[in-house]
Amino acid sequence: MPKFIHVAAAVICNENGDILIARRPATVDQGGLWEFPGGKLAPYETARQALARELNEEIGIQVTSASPLIAINHQYPEYNVLLDVWRVHSFDGEAYGREGQAVRWVKPEDLKKYSFPEANHSILKAISIPDYYVITGAAENEEEWLLKLTRALNAGAELVQMRVPSLDKNEFLSRAKKALALTSESGAKLILNSAADLLGQIDADGIHLSSERLSHYSQRPIPRDKLLSCACHNLAQLEQAIALQADLITLSPVQATDSHPGVEPMGWQRFKELIEQVPVPVYALGGMGREDIRKAKGLGGQGVAGIGAFWQQVSRSGK
Ligand SMILES: Nc1nc2c([nH]c(=O)n2[C@@H]2O[C@H](COP(=O)(O)OP(=O)(O)OP(=O)(O)O)[C@@H](O)[C@H]2O)c(=O)[nH]1
Ligand SMILES: [Mg+2]
């Protein structure tokens, strides 16, 4: 049996939104690579306790507020690691390399310039996406749909799933091009709810596979630098999404929702149990509002997804 280690690590943000990374000494395992500060749990310690101790020992700060970000199981040749990654929202003290290691505050978009251990791939993906995932909803026609999208972007949407099941492939592609112009201009990411091969015709940020489509693929259908979003409703689909190397997942229905009347919601407790071992950011979907973001994150989710508040009814005159 390979050795197993349980590690708590921290994504620490300062008031500018920069993130702290540290360089592992050349002489240790994974030496020379950058990492998120943290370390192994001592016996009888919870991950949260280990986080507080390690951050004090390694970078001299005292954590005052943190919530789980993602848990990653990863197999290295010599050992298996469970990385319990937390987001640290506030702390006391000034961070410095207390063990002599280099530390650096980095803009989230610059993290890709640094080399991290292999297991960190999912952490970097989780940091690059927001806590609210907007799914486009109903509109009378294309003009109104684009107006609603513009409003959602103006209201701060950063990740948008284009879902318009009524359009055929050509209509969808033509509208997606207009949507991409709008999302690119506002710095948001556009994910297309369509078959994966559409990315060959438009340079959107990723593809969302419905749970039905998800079952038809046996390997990841899009390149690694694009976002693969998957819809899941149960454990088997979560496993399938992980096998396809999904970058984000929507898990639904967490609460009762008007769009799927009569479908039994799983509830928050089941949501938590299902995502505990999922090494991919998971958004709660189904009856969600912005007020649920905190709850979802507190349970280890990435945030919430929905049509909801971002896709308000607007009249054609724009009022
Ligand atoms: N802290 C941290 N560990 C990581 C990251 N990514 C990653 O794969 N790991 C793995 O988790 C292990 C954590 O070990 P560590 O060296 O930080 O443990 P530690 O602070 O308790 O050090 P010690 O063994 O000297 O007491 C590393 O060997 C590495 O394999 C990361 O971003 N941060
Ligand atoms: Mg450490």
Helix/strand layout:
Blueprint: E1 3-12, E2 19-23, E3 34-35, E4 38-40, H1 47-59, E5 62-75, E6 79-92, E7 103-106, H2 121-128, E8 132-135, H3 142-154, E9 159-162, H4 169-186, E10 189-193, E11 206-209, H5 211-214, E12 227-232, H6 235-243, E13 248-251, H7 267-275, E14 282-285, H8 293-298, E15 303-306
Parallel strand pairs: 1-6, 8-9, 8-15, 9-10, 10-11, 11-12, 12-13, 13-14, 14-15
Antiparallel strand pairs: 1-4, 2-3, 2-7, 5-6
CATH class of the largest domain: Alpha Beta
What is the count of helical runs?
Answer: 8
- Helix/strand-derived category reads alpha/beta
**What is the global morphology?**
globular
Structural write-up:
The protein has 319 residues and is of the alpha/beta class. The protein has two domains: 3-119, Nucleoside Triphosphate Pyrophosphohydrolase (Alpha-Beta Complex); 132-311, Alpha-Beta Barrel (TIM Barrel), CATH 3.20.20.70. It is 25% helix and 27% strand. It is built from eight helices and 15 strands. It has helices at residues 47-59, 121-128, 142-154, 169-186, 211-214, 235-243, 267-275, 293-298, and strands at residues 3-12, 19-23, 34-35, 38-40, 62-75, 79-92, 103-106, 132-135, 159-162, 189-193, 206-209, 227-232, 248-251, 282-285, 303-306. It binds 8-OXO-guanosine-5'-triphosphate and magnesium ion. 8-OXO-guanosine-5'-triphosphate is lined by residues 7, 9, 29-30, 35-36, 38-40, 54, 76, 81, 83, 117, 119-120. It catalyses: 8-oxo-dGTP + H2O = 8-oxo-dGMP + diphosphate + H(+); 8-oxo-GTP + H2O = 8-oxo-GMP + diphosphate + H(+). One of its GO terms (biological process) is DNA repair. Residues 2-131 form the Nudix hydrolase domain. Its cofactor is Mg(2+).
